[in-house]
Amino acid sequence: MGGWTTRDIPEQGGRIAVVTGANGGLGLVTARELARAGARVVVACRDAGRGERAVERLRGEVPGADVTFGRLDLADLRSVREFAAWYPHDRLDLLVNNAGVMAVPYGTIADGFETQFGVNHLGHFALTGLLLPRLLAAPAARVVTVSSMLHALGKVDLRDLNSLRSYGRWTAYARSKSANLHFTHELARRFAASETPVVAVAAHPGYAATGLTAGVGGAATRRLLVAGDRVLAQPAEDGALPTLYAATAPGVRPDSFTGPALAMWRGAPSRSWRAPWTLDDTLGQRLWDASARLTGVTYDLVDRAA
């Protein structure tokens, strides 16, 4: 991959992209660079005010950018269904599952699921499934799901998906990010079995200043993390590069995991290490079945072949 940068993004004219959590951080940079390359971009986020401000900012930074706002609250499956029903285009070339929460106190989303598992995994599982017909209508669609190098700190516990037995905020975060990789692996497997030309891949930003630390821990912890962001983290512009590479570079292989080259921490996009359990077919299928049951969203168009 060498020193791949945004200058290497291929022309995206004619392509339509949805980027979740595109009102700030990695999502905003991802949306901006896709728009700069010519894509029509839907900024999908929860807060209408922040979403509209992000659209105006993108239009200011990229004159002529074709960007629109769509309200999407991944903490509410009804909102996910409403977004999919609202989606105004007949196809979708690129879905970037970027939005997420990190290491928040125990809580539940509108549907009763633990917050990090619900937002980071189940919300995107449902969104992708509901948008599947639009992805299949595109000639060479991609689904990019943003995980984390911290996925290695937590293996999904199928007996306690909602952390009812015990809750550790970092463990729950790691498990949700492992779930992102299980989802990518199983989605890629199902696309291959059904001979569907959609490519499912994953990416992670390494250690990047994304704004997620704003809700982590108490005041002292937040001050420490903010200081770490300033001194050690790469900027969001660099943290978004693995996602942009996975989304646009030619020849990206299904089920690949792209991250920063230097110790998974920072640097140009490169093939990234992933925990072996995220490639476990049995665990992936069981999590898939549980996710379909919990969300009520099925992938009938590809499930039959799988």
UniProtKB/TrEMBL annotation:
Keyword Oxidoreductase appears in the UniProt entry: yes
Keyword line: Oxidoreductase
Alphabetized Pfam families for the sequence: adh_short
Top-level taxon in the UniProt lineage: Bacteria
SUPFAM superfamilies for this protein: NAD(P)-binding Rossmann-fold domains (SSF51735)
Keyword Oxidoreductase: yes
InterPro entries, A to Z: NAD(P)-bd_dom_sf (IPR036291), SDR_fam (IPR002347)
GO molecular function: oxidoreductase activity
Family as reported in the entry's similarity comment: Belongs to the short-chain dehydrogenases/reductases (SDR) family.
Protein name: Short-chain dehydrogenase
Species, as recorded: Streptomyces longwoodensis
Record lineage: Bacteria, Bacillati, Actinomycetota, Actinomycetes, Kitasatosporales
